[in-house]
Amino acid sequence: ITKDQDYLNYILVNDAQIPDRTAYIMDHSKPNFFYDLKDDVLSQSKLNPDFFVMPCNTAHYFYNDLAALTDVPFLHMMRIAVHKFVDDFPKEEKIG
User: Fold this and answer.
1) How do the residues of the chain divide into helix, strand and coil, expressed in percent and rounded to 5?
2) Is the distance from CB of 21 to CB of 56 less than 8 angstroms?
3) Which end of the chain is less crowded, N or C, counting CB atoms within 10 A of the terminal residue's CB?
């Protein structure tokens, strides 16, 4: 990459008002963050992106539900990382 035009075009949504994800995962009496993420996915889907990336481990708690909201491909961060590791280190038996 040598110039701005070499980068992908992208839209970044940093919704800082989403309730604490870990708090909900550990205690379902805490505010559920799914509905905020749902609103974000639905609104961003209207822009017809090529794909979604969700660079938050805990947000993947609702990955299947969020991916089902749209026809836009929704990349799964951990699956991609595991596949990359397996491809690069096929003889390894443990990841950790």
Assistant:
1) 45, 0, 55
2) yes
3) C
80-91 tens-digit pLDDT: 998 999 899 999
Q: Which of 5, 17, 19, 13 is nearest to 42 (CA)?
A: 13
Q: What is the pTM of this model?
A: 0.83
Mean confidence (pLDDT) of the chain:
94
Average pLDDT over residues 70-74: 96
Token readout for 92 is: 């390894």
Q: Name all domains of the chain by residue range, CATH numbers in brackets.
A: 10-88 (3.40.50.1860)
Are 80 and 74 spatial neighbours (Cβ–Cβ below 8 Å)?
A: no
User: How far is Cα 62 from Cα 39, in angstroms, rounded to an integer?
Assistant: 13
CA atoms within 13 A on the CB side of 35: 3
Amino acid residing at 89: F
Report the distance separating Cα 18 and Cα 20, nearest Å.
7
pLDDT score of 52 = 96
